[in-house]
Design brief:
By secondary structure, the protein is mainly alpha-helical. Helices cover about 60% and strands about 5% of the residues. Helix 2 (about 25-35) packs antiparallel against helix 10.
Length: about 300
């Protein structure tokens, strides 16, 4: 089994990992791995630090360029150090400065580029939800004002409440439940689902032990995008596949989760708030951890 289609890993994460409108931290880390694989950055792990050397300043699309710009902005001598970045965060005493860093991190999670692939059913349901909310408040007003004279208004009030509740649930449903995939993209989604199962099947992977190392690197990139980077990295080690990138997966997850935690903690201490809002963190997911911005 081979990669269904040569798509950018951030795009695979956005469209085919789960709901086709949700980008998560795995897309960011898969992009880092892919940039490393293509010689645009060089990831190194040693001691208690993760270092990313910037070899080229441009990727192939807007999201890759955003990741590179983030690394370069906080790099010293063209090398981003997770340890130094975290130490810099700990030393900040300005709300404006920590807010800027927090926004930069959260912008790595923001990818909204699925319109070409799906008709988002949430958009339709949101319209009905807005109407049902309006009806609810109208019926609530009538209920409060005229219930003594017209007890039947209670039925209208109850109906509008349950209608609003139903459309609220529908709006939160997967984007394709009340929408649909365009063209033959649903077929491609099934292919990515099958590829994901293949990557988790040790017996199948053993059949490809003799493959060129570049194939394994590519598979690890897409495994990370699909949220199974850490699991697949472990499988590769069991097969004695010499792949340094397999070590980058868990370590980068840990370092960036720590960075995001430090930012939220510092933001909270400087503002007196909870510090937890604004774009999620680098801590969740079943793969390698972080998020994105914009696409081609």
């Amino acid at each position: 089994s081979f990669v269904p289609k040569k798509r950018k890993p951030w795009q695979v994460n956005l469209l085919f990992k789960g709901d086709a409108t949700k980008f998560d931290e795995n897309g960011f880390y898969a992009t880092l791995l892919d940039l490393h694989r293509r010689g645009i950055i060089e990831i190194e792990h040693g001691g208690d630090d993760l270092r990313i050397k910037i070899l080229k300043e441009h990727g192939d699309d807007e999201y890759e360029n955003r990741v590179i710009r983030f690394l370069k902005k906080y790099a010293s001598n063209n090398t981003f150090s997770a340890k130094e970045f975290r130490e810099m965060i700990d030393g900040i005493d300005s709300v404006g400065e920590i807010t800027l860093i927090r926004d930069d991190l959260n912008n790595l999670h923001k990818v909204r580029d699925a319109k070409e692939f799906i008709v988002n059913g949430r958009v339709f349901m949101a319209g009905f939800l807005a109407i049902s909310v309006a009806l609810f408040f109208i019926s609530l007003f009538l209920y409060i004002s005229y219930f003594d004279s017209y007890p039947v208004i209670f039925s209208a009030f109850s109906f509008s409440f349950f209608l609003m509740l139903q459309f609220g649930i529908a709006t939160a449903a997967p984007s394709t439940l009340f929408g649909h995939w365009k063209k033959d993209y649903y077929k491609e989604k099934l292919e990515w689902d099958a590829f994901k199962k293949f990557l988790l099947d040790m017996a199948q992977l053993k059949k490809y032990e003799s493959q060129d190392i570049s194939i394994w690197k590519e598979w690890l990139v897409y495994a990370t995008a699909l949220g199974i980077g850490k699991k697949v990295a472990k499988e590769f080690k069991k097969l004695d596949i010499e792949l340094p990138e397999a070590d980058y997966v868990p370590y980068a997850y840990i370092y960036f989760a720590s960075i995001h935690s430090s930012v939220n903690r510092k933001y909270s201490s400087l503002t007196g708030g909870s510090g937890g809002g604004g774009g999620g963190g680098f801590g969740g997911g079943g793969g390698f951890g972080g998020g994105g911005a914009g696409g081609r």
